[in-house]
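Note to self: keep these together.
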Amino acid sequence: MFALSASLALMAWGTVGAYANDILFNGTLDIIGITSQVNPCPVGWNIDAYKSISNPAGGFTDGGDSEPWCNVSPPSDPAGYGFFFKPFQGTWGPPGLDDLLTVHVYQDNPTTPNTSFTLSFNAAGEANFCAFCPTNSPAPGVYGVIVFVNSSGTIISSNAYNLVTAGLPNGGPGSMSGFTFTSPSVTAPAGTTSVRAGASLVNAYGTTGGQSFFVDNFLLDATPAAGSPVVTNQPAGAVVSPGGTAHFTVGVANPTGATYQWQLYNTNLSNGGEFSGVTTATLTVSPASAADVGHYRVLVSNGSGASYSASAPLALQGLNFFPVVSLTGKAGDTYRVDYATTLTPTPDWTPLSTNRMTSATLQIIDTGSPGSNKRFYRSVFLY
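Structure:
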């Protein structure tokens, strides 16, 4: 969870320099699946939603979801998703009866003290979004957040930035591409073991008409501390046959004293089964199966700090060969196609399909016989 306060929310933002390394997994939010919400949400991200009266301990399951109509992507990726917050799920009423909605969308990543971070993302609200009229108490709001957490899971530093103050547009999803929030650079303090970054909707309630809030395209740029590992050769993607072997290798300019931890979809891997070399410069996946398909990256650390590699995909490619039965006859006639696995001593014919000739030539594919299976076929006129 996040520790947000009004004082943090009013912090200013400033000019930000260039940063070399985005450490977020699925920052475009385009990989989606079922998570803690009733509808699909971005994979690799945590969605914490609760309402002040009916779900004060969390567990509200309809605070937001992934939607294609709030996607902001380059021309090469037109079919992605953004995240749709649902402030209308909250209610405002007499004092003490407000059932206000809070939703945190965030990702945790391991890091080290003295690493500096800058967060940026696209965002927009609709004209009647409650955060544009923060007259109620507690006031509704939307924030970009960078939080530093220690090994016990305790927040040791929280930085929240008011998006409305930063110029959040009110033109709905169509105005997202014209607004990119960028935070100031903040540095992980002593004791930090992970950085938590994302966006938060707090104390929200329904109004009328267009009233929602949207985000997309998160970047969490990291500048490691001096002396941290420098990744010089990124792991390359792999395409192998089912049951094949995939290798992912990272190159580091200063490997002395470096340790490695490979991840799949932002989750640390362990040696065993199809995985080996998970704490070395080369990860091996063998035999690769559909369960191993995804994006791999490695965290490289030494006594000074840590750096992530870019993500590299693993895909499977297989070829299936199916027999094709070709029929030439009179349009309108109907034939049954049978198959048998042997012709002696007596064929045991099994019906495959019944087919009406819609033209003079018809092709029937036997998808139940892939590869080199041996079958014999016959066609029987029915009517």
